[in-house]
Amino acid sequence: MKIICIGRNYINHAKELGNSLPIEPLFFLKPNTAIQPKGHPFFIPFFSNDIHYEVELVIRINKAGKHIEERFAHNYYSEIGLGIDFTARDIQKECKKKGLPWEKAKGFDGSAQISRVFIDKSNLDLNNISFSLHKNSKQVQIGNSKDMCFNFDFIISYISKFYTLKIGDLIYTGTPEGVGSVKSGDKLKGFISKQEMLTVLVK
Ligand code: MG
User: Fold this and answer.
1) Average of pLDDT values for 85-106?
2) Structural domain of residue 110, as residue ranges?
3) How far apart are CA 95 and CA 68, in angstroms?
């Protein structure tokens, strides 16, 4: 099982980090050890002083495929979940400055938070999914799939040109603006529309 993450898929988030907009999807991987064991809190790693939350809609692949045409991509997933792509922003900035890969800043243990619940896509309007993140009961991020630069089907088609997709693979589809840091004691709650999808306790 692999975890593929899309970067800069929302214009206003790319802008807030001072990044240019991609002309094709930008993606990177996290190892499967980045998934937080169920019920565990998230421990801030010792090597960073600036861990950021990034709330994202997540596709779970339910059929293996490669070189998937965009018009058939909808056959490769049936559910959408919610995740947090935790990022060591200080380490990422350093890597970017040096032109080095970001994995160190993106793939640490617990960096891929994922909802237990996934929503069947037949119950969603895929081009209009609203989602949000609350930190200590205050809304910090709000996004909508209609604002994605690249939609779910395009992303699947694009990634599958490079990597074979397998059942259970997760694709984090990018975060909207409003990313920020967490500290020990924070409680994050993620929602799709009004439905509570995940809670993360930061230690
Ligand atoms: Mg992200």
Assistant:
1) 96
2) 3-201
3) 32
**How many domains in the chain?**
1
| Rounded distance from Cα 13 to ligand 1 centre (Å) | 10
Length of the chain, please?
203
Mean pLDDT of the chain: 96
Distance (angstroms) between ligand 1 centre and the Cα of 123 equals 25
Q: What is the pLDDT of residues 157-202, one digit of tens each?
A: 999 999 999 999 999 999 999 999 999 999 999 999 999 999 999 9
- E strand segments, 77-178: 77-85, 87-88, 112-114, 119-120, 130-135, 138-144, 170-172
Query: Which amino acid appears at position 33 of this protein?
Result: T
Distance CA(76)–CA(156), nearest Å, equals: 8
| Gap between the Cα atoms of 3 and 110, Å rounded | 13
CA 119 – ligand 1 centroid, Å: 20
Between the CA of 112 and the centroid of ligand 1 the distance, in Å, is 10
**CA 104 to ligand 1 centroid distance, Å:** 14
Residue 98: give its domain's CATH number. Answer: 3.90.850.10
The DSSP string of 1-49 is --EEEEES-BHHHHHHTTPPPPSS-EEEEE-GGGBPPTTPPBPPPTT-S
Distance in angstroms (rounded) separating the CA atoms of residues 83 and 173: 9
pLDDT > 90? residue 38 = no
Distance 150 CA to ligand 1 centre (A): 14
171 Cα to the center of ligand 1, angstroms: 10
